[in-house]
Amino acid sequence: MLLLVASQIFYTQKLVDLNDKNKSLLRLGQDFLQLRRHEKDFLLRLDLVYVDKFNLQAEQFLRQLALVQTTDEQAVLNQDIFHQLLDSFPLYQQQFTTLVQTRVAMGLNENMGYQGEFRDATHRLEAKIANADMLYMHQVLLQMRRAEKDFLLRKDMEYVDKELGLYSTLRQRIEALPPQVHAEFMPLLSQYQQQFMQLVDAYRQIGLDHDSGLQGRFRNQAHLVEQHFINLDQQLQQQVDDAQRRVEITSIMIMLVTSIILIILLVRSFLTLQRAFSNFVMFFYRCKREYQHMDEKSMGFSEFKYLATIANEMIDSRRQMERELCAAQDEIKRLKKQYQSTTSEQSQ
Predict the structure, then answer these.
(1) Residue 29: which of 181, 298, 227, 200 has the closest Cα?
(2) Hey, is 290 helix, strand or coil?
(3) pLDDT per residue over 84-133, tens digit each?
(4) Measured by CB atoms within 10 angstroms of the end CB, which terminus of the chain is less buried, N or C?
(5) Distance, CA of 210 to chain centre
(6) Rounded CA separation 251/3 (Å)
(7) What pLDDT, on a 0 to 100 scale, did the predictor assign at position 1?
(8) Secondary structure class of 167 (helix, strand, coil)
(9) Angle at CA of residue 307, ends 301 and 308, nearest 5°
(10) Which of 286, 287, 309 is closest to 297 using CA atoms?
(11) How far, in Å, CA of 110 to CA of 5, rounded?
């Protein structure tokens, strides 16, 4: 029973520790989900407030991760996954920082960064062409603006190629103008095109879809960190299941061993009781026939030993009474003989 209780206490404590680790891992997972939330809030709203929240949450996440790792140093397999997390998370954080820096360089709104510069260059070129009253050139510029906006909306390089073709057409038209007019328009057109291509390169660097560029690498790294979490959760769950199975198997084994021991003790107790009872039967038989003592040491129970002691005292008392009775009878016989001899002497 002590072994059963000790094993239950040991394995229960182990299960409690594993459940505590599992809860800590769940809190880590929640912290990581908060990181993903701040990350997506920034990409959607382009507000640096969410970058600050991301950085604060990342620091808290790393502290919590180090704490959980310290409390689980004995699990070698878990430590491998913890090391993978510690290696992959800084890269995830670094790639997000790079993505933020590139997005800030592009401009968080239409008046900042590359977007603001491109917007200013576009407005200057439009104003110059509108003031010169060149309808055909203005028409080509509108087509360029349409291709530009199609690219910004759909992120398809087909519209960049279309814009480049229209740019070549407009450039040829400007080059055909008189040198003085050419000198006024060409710098504005070149600046417009340079700013547009700079913006295109920035979009390509970030990624034209979720699987390319910085977005794609960042997304893959985030999924890698998530996969490490899944692996760690599965590993901990496997340890919990193994511990529960060990508890069940150990409990069953201890119960079986305890049951066998109890059965053996019951059988031995029954045999001892039977032997003691037989001894008492023989004792009474001997008391009746021979008045023999019982061997107290052969009794199996303390109560029987005590009864055997009392029975032996009864035998001793009976023998003492018989000896005293015999002595009294001998004395009576002696006195009787003495009386008879005295009477006979007096009669003579």
Answers:
(1) 227
(2) coil
(3) 888 899 999 999 999 999 999 999 998 999 999 999 999 999 999 888 87
(4) C
(5) 31
(6) 10
(7) 59
(8) helix
(9) 90
(10) 309
(11) 71
